[in-house]
Amino acid sequence: MPPLLEVTALRSGYGPIDVLHDIGLSVDAGEIVTMIGANGAGKTTTLLTVSGAVRVRGGRVAFDGHDLTRTPAHKVVSLGMAQSPEGRKIFPRLTVLENLQMGAFTRTDKPAIADDLEKMFGLFPILKERKGQAGGLLSGGQQQMLAIARALMSRPKLLLLDEPSLGLAPQIVTQIFDIIRDLNAKQGMSVLLVEQNARLALKVAHRGYVLETGRVTLADKASVLLNDPRIRAAYLGE
Amino acid sequence: MPPPARKPFGLSWEGGIFLALLLYPLFPMFERGLFAATGRSLGEQLPLVFIFALLAYGLNVVVGYTGLLHLGIAAFFAVGAYTAGIFSTAAYAFQWPFWVVLPLGALAAAGVGLLLGAPTLRLRGDYLALVTLGFGEVTKFTLKNVVGITAGSQGLSPINPPTDHPAWSDDFRPFYYLTLGVLILAALLLRNLERSRLGRAWIALREDELAANCMGLNPAKLKLAAFALGSGLAGLAGVLYATRLTSTADPNAYDFNRSIFLVCCLIVGGLGSRLGALLGVMLLVGFDNILTPIIDGAIQQQFPDAGGKIFLTFTGWRLAVFGLALILMMRFRPEGLFPSSRVKHELHPDEAVSEPVEPITMGKTTGEVAAIDGGKA
């Protein structure tokens, strides 16, 4: 069976500068895959290019039997790929409920959407308590939960998750990563995770890729990377 | 859903204002007594307010809902007015009736909006503002210079009234109710839009384009829709304006000042708020057309020998007062006088419901994942 997401020799960037030179990676159905690397290695750009928000300049993106290389971001969602972008990016003036409804923007099956709303409220009870409040009034951790829930509202097969631990207290980070692990284990959702906290990411993921200046320099099982002395020295602070 | 507006007597402020306006002509004593000193009739001034409120609604769709700075709304106002001029005056063979010309003006303006928007809406922020500003000026000069089509600075006239009934020209009420009716219909349309999927999508786009894009929203299409609707409403206002003047007027009536004036109305009233657009226009147009002449009259009575000294007229100070008011607004009430609940939330979060503090226990964490957290910058 072909992988759910397959990225080959991907090249992209902004303006005159190429950020990604040669990225190759794949995510199988039911897998959590993480990309680790220093600031500026191209982790976020990879996610944005895969989801179509940044244009592909070379190489190929294939997802679930579709060629996404030239597909704009707004069409990718209905194919089953959702993104929770870096910095959360919730809509501060829309209420929590409206934020979640925006996540289901491409869907038209109203009863199922209502169902999924309840599921999200089950997964993140705090969102139910706050559903009438403007998203901008939530705390950082709650906003991150909202961003993930919003992405899940499109019923994705693959969730692109960018820096879910950014600026959050350790306990909240635990909660969030427990939920990610649960979603994967219980619902078989695939996740492509970008995370600065490499140790945390490798603990949760099945496989990992190491990015350096726009290239994949190492790819292996997460447990192997976690014990690799080079990784320990470079990314795990040992 | 956003928190509901306060409703005295089961009626929103907006509904109350519209009701008062609907009832106003039934009380002729106001009409005769209130502004007798100035020799002006409020009933004849108010339709002008309604027309500009309609124009402000159109601008509000683009600037308020979708967050695109548009500095050339007057151009679309002009497209509406000149559509009326071309299809209704004796200068052309069409001479179509008013009820055909009214929607046609809206459609023409919306079409021009699409033509301008399609190539330029990819621009962000300041660049789009410059393009719209430039388009406004180009439109004005084009109208001035293609004399063969637009009759230059003379303007096309006379524009046919909707009906030949003598009451149309003798009484202020038919036109009053016509413009008020169109305005209320537009308000109802916008109210439903704000609550619709499209309305929410516009707001999401204004809040964060990248995130909106990631949710499957097509920014180009949404912006174009906002531009077309905003331009269409402006065109509608243009037809009514020309009908009132029975002429398209001098192209200078559609210059940059008018566009900026409307942006000011929205800012004073509250960006993104229908009530704000309506009251912003009432305040500023009222200030300009109703209050200024009254004060001028009063000053003239006090100093009959002023001899035309400009500093002894209120008109001379008008723009200074206007500017001061804007500065004070920005300092003390940046969300506008009558903001939409969403904006108020954001600019004064401390006035909103205070949130309980999240319990965070540092040091002792649970679960294997947290135990290894720590390398986070």
Q: What is the annotated CATH architecture of the domain at 5-88 and 157-234 in chain A?
A: 3-Layer(aba) Sandwich
Query: How many separate helices of chain B?
Result: 17
Instruction: From the 3D structure, determine the CATH topology of chain B.
Output: ABC transporter involved in vitamin B12 uptake, BtuC
Report the portion of residues of chain A in β strands. 25-35%
> How many distinct domains of chain B?
1
Uncertain runs of chain B: 1-6, 352-377
Element-level helix/strand string of chain A: EEEHEEHEHHHHEHEHEEHH
Our count of helices of chain A gives 10
Class from secondary-structure proportions of chain A = alpha/beta
What oligomeric state best describes the polypeptide chains here? heterodimer
Characterize the largest beta sheet of chain B: strand count, sense, and whether it forms a barrel. Answer: none
Would you mind describing this structure in some detail?
The complex is a heterodimer of chains A (238) and B (377). The longest helix of chain A is centred in the last third of the chain and has 18 residues, at 170-187. The termini of chain A are far apart. Chain A is globular and about 45 Å long. Helices cover 37% and strands 26% of the residues of chain A. In chain A, the strands form two sheets. Chain A has a six-stranded mixed sheet, sandwiched between helices. In chain A, strands 2-1-4-5 form a four-stranded antiparallel sheet, covered by helices on one side. With 238 residues, chain A is of the alpha/beta class. The mean pLDDT of chain A is 93. Chain A has helices spanning 43-50, 73-76, 96-103, 110-123, 125-129, 140-152, 170-187, 198-204, 222-227, 229-234; strands spanning 5-14, 17-27, 32-37, 58-63, 66-67, 81-84, 158-162, 190-194, 207-212, 215-221. Chain A has ten helices and ten strands. By secondary structure, chain B is an all-alpha fold. Chain B has one domain (11-347): ABC transporter involved in vitamin B12 uptake, BtuC (Orthogonal Bundle), CATH 1.10.3470. Chain B is built from 17 helices and no strands. Residues 1-6 and 352-377 of chain B have low confidence and may be disordered. Chains A and B meet through helix 2, helix 3, helix 6, helix 7 and helix 8 of A and helix 10, helix 11, helix 16 and helix 17 of B.
